[in-house]
Write a structure and sequence with these properties.
10 strands, 2 domains, Nucleotidyltransferase, domain 5, five-stranded mixed sheet
């Protein structure tokens, strides 16, 4: 089954064709990083306008690379939630029009589910049930994936997502957007024990996260040093800050896995590319646990992950009509149709 899939929830215009939820036939992504870099973050209106300009072009390029014709397509999948509402609507409306014109089933896909599904594209043996942690600029979740379309949230952030915390920290350190990548590179040269940043844990919600405190801490640390005229080691700050964030992520995830007797662990989302997080999870997992991590090329937003999850949504009968709408917020536990 060949599924044409669209992702436009933030600042990547991505189109892919995925076969049977496990094979990438073609995958193209237009990144707007250079566009938003001058603003230090994504500007929603600008992101939406670039999606409008690029989505038709990217669709044609995807088909060209695949070597398939439109007659070879069996369905259309599209990210319908969550994300920037204007950006989502561009991809959703284009997908609805394409599916309607070609008489193809329209499959709505949840963005966070799609991140998890990126792992299906590189690990043929990976099947639910398993425990997943999705960490990105907008999301920090620990979920029990009971089946391909059956999710239970066990932990989540109470305020800021891990990716947002990395971006904020990078801006304070004067690093360019996107900040998470810059901090990760700089941290490799620093001492993670140089500064002790706060690590928040909740007794009643042991798998939940909070990163607002560590964001405030690095802001205060830098401001105090500047007021006193003290020199700052950016590499030590980056390493210490990254250690605090990834330490909480790894601790909560591994604790949750142990408490729920989970042997198969999956990470996903943009922050899953963080080298310190990967190292902590590899070192901390038990001998009888298997850890699945997506390749760096599939950590960020892409169309292939939408096609992978779309296949299983289709098998579950989750097909929508032209009345389908986009949602800026939507629980991973709920069905879009």
């Amino acid at each position: 089954m060949n599924i044409l899939s669209f992702e436009s929830s933030c600042d990547e215009t991505a189109v892919a064709i995925v076969r049977d939820g496990r094979e990438i036939v073609a995958d193209v992504v237009f990144s707007q990083i250079d566009v938003h870099k001058i603003y230090g973050g994504v500007v929603p209106e600008i992101a939406s306008r670039f999606h409008i300009e690029k989505i038709s072009q990217m669709t044609a390029e995807c088909l060209r690379r695949s070597g398939l014709s439109e007659e070879d397509l069996d369905a259309v999948a599209v990210t319908a939630a969550p994300g920037l509402i204007g950006a989502l609507l561009v991809g959703l409306n284009f997908a609805k029009g394409y599916a309607y014109a070609r008489g193809l089933p329209l499959i709505p896909v949840h963005h966070i589910r799609a991140h998890v599904a990126a792992n299906y594209l590189v690990y043929p043996e990976l099947k639910p049930p398993f425990l997943a942690m999705i960490v990105s600029g907008g999301h920090s979740h620990i979920v029990l994936v009971r089946d391909y379309t059956d999710y239970q949230i066990l932990g989540r952030t109470k305020d800021d997502a891990a990716g947002e915390a990395f971006d904020k920290g990078a801006r304070i350190l004067g690093l360019p957007y996107p900040g998470g990548v810059q901090i990760d590179r700089l941290a490799e040269k620093g001492n993670p024990a140089a500064v002790r940043f706060p690590r928040v844990h909740f007794k009643e919600d042991p798998y939940d996260f909070s990163f607002s405190g560590v964001k405030t801490a690095i802001v205060n640390h830098v401001h105090r040093a500047k007021q006193k005229g003290e020199a700052l080691s950016l590499s030590d700050l980056a390493a210490s800050y990254s250690d605090a964030i990834t330490g909480v992520l790894a601790e909560n995830f591994l604790r949750c896995a142990a408490d729920h007797h989970q042997k198969t662990l999956v990470i996903a989302g943009g922050v899953s590319a963080n080298s310190m997080l990967r190292a902590k999870l590899e070192q901390g997992k038990a001998r009888d646990q298997r850890l699945y991590m997506p390749p760096l090329s599939l950590c960020g937003d892409n169309g292939a992950m939408v096609g992978a999850q779309g296949y299983y949504e289709y098998l579950a009968g989750h097909v929508a009509g032209t009345e389908l709408n986009a949602y800026s917020a939507f629980s991973i536990e709920n069905q879009l149709c």
